[in-house]
Amino acid sequence: xxxSLSRRWSLRLISSSSMREAIESARYEFRELNYAxxxxxxxxxxxxxxxxxxAKYKPFYDAVMMADWETAGGLFADADTTANEQAMELFxxxxxxTPEEQEEFSDYRRYLDL
Length: 114
Prior knowledge:
Shape: elongated
Helix content: 55-70%
Radius of gyration: 17 Å
């Protein structure tokens, strides 16, 4: 399957741009918060946050967070992978989707469950 140059470039942005950075930043912030919470005891209880990928958005989360598209043959390799398909579907929702879809799928917080 061949993609146009602009679509290839746009798909690369999904995996390496601000959405991935925002998810990584949120995970880091919650690790820091959990570290701070671990220092305190509330009566006999301790509290922490568990951050996991949202079940609803997991396929898109996986496509965005794939470790390294370049060493895996590139996001746009001719091989038809699930992550590749999910990245293309996400791209379509972000670029061609309804305003509601664009808002829903561009918010990194939806990709995480707390």
